[in-house]
Amino acid sequence: MNAESDISPYIRFNPFASWVVERDSLKFVDVNLKALQYYGYSRDEFLSLSIEDILPDIQATENADSISELLRGKDFEFPATCLFKKKSGECTRFEVHTQVLDMNGKTCLLAVCRKLGQMENQLCVEKIRLEQLDAISSITGIGYWKLNLKDNKLTWSDEIFDILGRDSSTFHMSLKHWQEVVHPDDRESFSSAIHNAIKGHEAHDFAYRVIWPDKSIKWIHQKGRLLTNSRGGLQALEGTAQDITEIKENELRLNELNTALRISEERFRFAQEIAPDGYTILHPVRDDKGAIIDFSWVYENQAIANINKTDPKEVIGKRLLDLFPSHQGTELFDAYVQVAESGQSKIFDDVYVGEILSEPTWLRLTLVSIGEDIAILTHNITERKLAEEALRKSEANLRTIFEIASLGIAQVNPANGNILFINKHYESITGYSVEELYKMSFVQLTHPDDREKDWELFSKAARGEQEYKNEKRYVRKDGTIIWVRIHLAFIRDENGKAIRTVAICENITERKESELRLSDLSDNLPGVIFQYVLNPDGSDALKSVSRGSHRLWAHSPEEVENDIDLVWNQIKAAGDYDKVKAGILEAVRTKSKWSARYRSVLPSGELQFHLGSGTPNYLMDGTVVFNSVILDVSNEAKNEEILSQASSMARIGSWEVDPIRGDVFWSDMTHQLHETDPATFQPNLEDGILFYREDFRELVRSHVNSSIETEMSFDFEAVIVTANNRERWVRAIGRSEIIGKQSKRILGSLQDIHTQKTNEIALEQSLKTLREYQLAVDQAVSLIMIDSESIIIEVNENFCSLSQYARSELIGAKHEIIPPELNAEQVLTNFSQRFVEGKVWRGEVCLKKKDGSKYWVNTTVVPLLDAHNSPYQYLVLRIDISYRKRAEEQINQAYEKLKKIAWTQSHVVRAPLARMLGIMNLIEKDFAKDEEICLWIRHLRHSADEMDQIVKRIVEETKSMI
Question: pLDDT (tens digit, 9 = 90+) per residue, 454-486?
């Protein structure tokens, strides 16, 4: 069998573009279907060309070098990368493997070409996007490790566990344990490589094998470098490790396939057995009319058997639809039939067979007719498809974060505050365009009154003394003032000096204005809000007094909290102390709300009337706490006093009606109330009703008629419109006298209640206003009241909604039912210390809802002190800030990951350049007298230097993004 026939099956069935060229004439002598599809030629057209016809008109230096080496038939340790031109003129880059062949006495080259995909393009993009770097790192599986030479302590990234096939929760990181997983044949060279690297005898760059727990063997490529301190002393050996098993296996497969090309077709079949790609031969099964109804197995290699979960020996002779009935009626089965009938090949790209096979699998199929049979070349591309999907999701997720984030993000020079990078959202925050902001510093944006404090916080954070989190004011371009919350992260050099500052900015103007409104609401009520505490021993105190105490009691909140008698003495001076005290005790006894109106004499001698209201809360130790409000109702009280005097002066008139004749009698006082003249005005029943305001007339008629018919008495309040067109509230009382089932007369009284009624309406309005104020306080924040034993004694509906706990689950429970989720020990310790000291505690805390989900709250805890200034209760106020905390956490994680990946990739990408330069040095040394070789070496060296500069620029630009 000649060389041409030996090579033809490989050319025909190879899933990669393959062709054979005569080295002297550069003419093509053979080509497969895959290559024709890539280049766009027919077979006859392609075989009429030479290799020069598929080269670009203008060749890049690295392409010319690669083509030259290819034509010389050099054996590559790694495949060459060449740029070829299609029939359409489009240029595509290929990874090319070559092998020198002797065909019919002529020296030829066999080239197997793999089209390079998206990964190479991503590496060549001038600015590497964050999400692509993340996906590349995940796909390549490069791990980082570091050996501290002082204590021989070894640390590494999670990828090392994956590379070694070990569980991070059980495998102990140490040099000894690492060496134990190395293949016994490689352990001595592994130890020698570590030792020589530490001694500086040679670069730490070598490959070795490890044994996984399942006894499989993996190839690892490891590189490292020595780290020294400022005095030149050795500190650590650090490096990277990468699983190159696939590369090694590909090298072995290529060698085996090249061997198969030089032997018989039987040896080629053996090569298919060990090939990683599936190879199947099926024979058509026909019915009586010759139509294909099924296929039987002729042959399958182990690779396709692994995919199909079948035994290559037992499957021979079995029918396809018996093993895989789901193939029936599919497009794939129809394609099998078409290839068998027509003899024309067919290629299926990206076939998803997850519904046919037991596991979701992506395949690339090449169907070829072989006589009466068909051959199916199967390439499993599942791993690549999953990697592409992971890359797409990573890119989409991070892009979405930046597109929808309602946060300003900027990078700042910590030395002068100048803006180095800023996102578009800062435009809506500051009113300046991005172009204008690049010419400014953050000092210019900060309100002048906040600059000194802000600089002090920034300086301490830059020195590493504390974390920078600050709420301050910005002055917008239009001069308006807004509140922002700033969180800073510092990027430091190896000496810890801050070289970049990343700022996250949130506009909190609305929240600040709400806080100020809540404060104003409390401080500007026409009264005072406070807690009245009645202890089990009978002592009492005032706590949490609002600033309205200045107006109501002429004392500050601190003064009355320290001495409640300042208030009680004012009530005693007015003579109402016993009445007020008794009302409080009655409310405690009946567990009802307390409400009272009483007098109070201020230190100035002024007499005031106060209206108080409070809701009692009962603590486990017997203490009763009233959440109370007191209003100044002096004006209303004076109006009621005037009403009382009017009543004592008998402003009550009498009247009588004869229902038979319709005659009406009014007393002088009744005339006075109607502002009519008794000498000139003689009323009748209808006139009397018409004096009532129109909306009360039907009510009056109804009462009068009912009294006439049933002798029912009546008593109602209504408004009359006097003869002088003045409205007046009156109380009408009357009854009917019935004799012989007939009403003889209706008599009654008419009382002037205008002042009293007006005062009642005003009082009701005051009480309504008081209820609205109380509702506003309850709705503004989430509130919890706990006692000194951390027992929850009161919560509002706002907190129940936020935490998902019912009120019945919280009242009487320990406050630990809603513990901090993050830094719990630190937060609780800080809590306890502030509680003991009786001080207000403020902070941001992450809590758990009932369903286990987390939420962040801005928390203020106010201790309520007893007469001895010891905390006996705590008022906990919370505002939900979860959405902002989640955004801060996601962006901080993204930036940290970018820094790590950028540093690691900069070393991995430049590693092949170093090896290329080393190989060139060896070739140049061995062929120093060969001018042609030296010329090509100089070209290679020039290209390597250019590539090195490109990598450096990419690394620098990546760092500038961080």
Answer: 888 888 888 888 888 888 999 999 999 999 988
Prediction pTM value: 0.25
What HEC string does 447-516 produce?
CHHHHHHHHHHHHHHHCCCCCCEEEEEEECCCCCEEEEEEEEEEEECCCCCEEEEEEEEEECHHHHHHHH
- Is residue 29 within 8 Å of 49, Cβ to Cβ? no
Q: Are 117 and 16 in contact (CB under 8 A)?
A: no
Grouping H, G, I as helix, E, B as strand and the rest as coil, residue 204 is strand
Length of the chain: 962
pLDDT given at position 516: 67
Distance in angstroms (rounded) separating the CA atoms of residues 239 and 70: 34
Find tokens 């805890």 and name the residue.
861
Spacing of C-alpha 466 from chain mean position:
25
The three-state (H, E, C) secondary structure of 517-531, written as one string: HHHHHHHCCCEEEEE
> For residue 390, what are its two tokens?
């992971």
Here the contacts of 397-400 (C-beta below 8 Å, separation 24 or greater) are 397/131, 398/130, 398/131, 398/134, 398/894, 399/131
- Asked whether 333 and 349 are in contact (CB, 8 A), the reply is no
Own/partner long-range contacts of 340-347 (Cβ < 8 Å, ≥24 apart): 340/284, 340/292, 340/295, 340/369, 340/372, 340/373, 340/374, 341/292, 342/369, 343/369, 344/369, 345/33, 345/369, 347/33, 347/34, 347/37
How would you classify the pairing of strands 871-880 and 594-601?
unpaired
What is the pLDDT, as a whole number, of residue 106?
Answer: 84
**Angle at the Cα of 770 (from 767 to 772), degrees rounded to 5?**
115
